[in-house]
Structure formats: structure tokens, C-alpha cells
Amino acid sequence: MLENYCKTICIEARTMRSMAIKRIAPALEGYTAELSANMNEKKKAIPELECSFEKEIITEMSGRTDRIYSDVQKMVSVLDSLSGEDYFRDAEIIRDSLLPEMTRLREDSDAAERLTSKKFWPLPNYGLLLFGEK
Predict the structure, then answer these.
(1) pLDDT per residue over 52-103, tens digit each?
(2) What is the pTM of this model?
């Protein structure tokens, strides 16, 4: 049972890594790029505009993307430390190190989802999953 637990959590962590790097981070980058381009166009048209919304979201999204990347790197480091043979030791590492890193990645990804335009978000959101909202 302990072997199954370790393998299952590792599969979940690798799936999270893949989703974060291949889907979530590129979506954040795409939305940030669009906001940046929009802000620059608005500033060209009317230089005195503040563009507070764009500045705030771009700053937050860039920070989120960096945190997601950092979360993934920490998670991969923990995954690399697992032996795959000593399941008692691995289970302790998973409990103490991997699960907290997975939680951080989840929290940063959830926060990014709340900021990202639906047009860019590559995954079903909670409203869609729970209530069928579009």
C-alpha cells in the first residue's frame, strides 16, 4: 500500500509539473503579452493614460509565473531525491516536502486562474466543472 501511495503521488506531481510548464505558464505569458501590447497601444494613442489595470495585472501575472516556475523547480528537486526503493523513506519525504510543494503550486496556479482572461486559460475552471458555466 505504501508503494502504491508513493507511486500515485509521484504521478500526480509529474502531471502537475507538466500542466504548469506546458499549459499554465504559457497561458499566463500570453495574457501578459496581450495586456502589455494593449497598454503600449493605449499609451501611444494617449500618452498621459495611467493604464493602472494593465500595470497591476502585468506585475501580478509576471510574479505568479515566476512563483509557478519556482514551485515546479522545487517539486522536481524533491521528486529527484526519492529513491523509488525505500518506500518508508520516500513516504516521509513526500509527506514533509513534496505535498507542501504541490500545495504551493496549486495555490499559485489557482491565484493565476483568477487573474487570467478566460480566453487564455487552457483548463476548465471551477464554474465549468461544478456548474456547467461557460
Answers:
(1) 999 999 999 999 999 999 999 999 999 999 999 999 999 999 999 999 999 9
(2) 0.87
Contact (Cβ atoms closer than 8 angstroms) between residue 30 and residue 61? no
Beta-carbon contacts of 108 under 8 Å, excluding residues fewer than 6 positions away, are 64, 67, 68, 71
Judge: domain 2-117, CATH 3.40.50.10490: no
Backbone angles phi, psi at 85, to 5 degrees: -125, -40
Per-residue burial over 101-132, b if 16 or more Cβ lie within 10 Å, else e, is: bbebbeebbeebbeebeeeebeeeeeeeeeee
Reading the block at residue 40, the C-alpha cell is: 503600449
- The C-alpha angle 94, 69, 96, rounded to 5 degrees, equals 15
Cα–Cα distance measured from residue 50 to residue 29, given in angstroms and rounded to the nearest whole number: 22
Look at residues 31, 102, 18 and name the one whose alpha carbon lies nearest to residue 65: 31
CB 24 within 8 A of CB 68: yes
Contact 6, 94 (CB under 8 A): yes
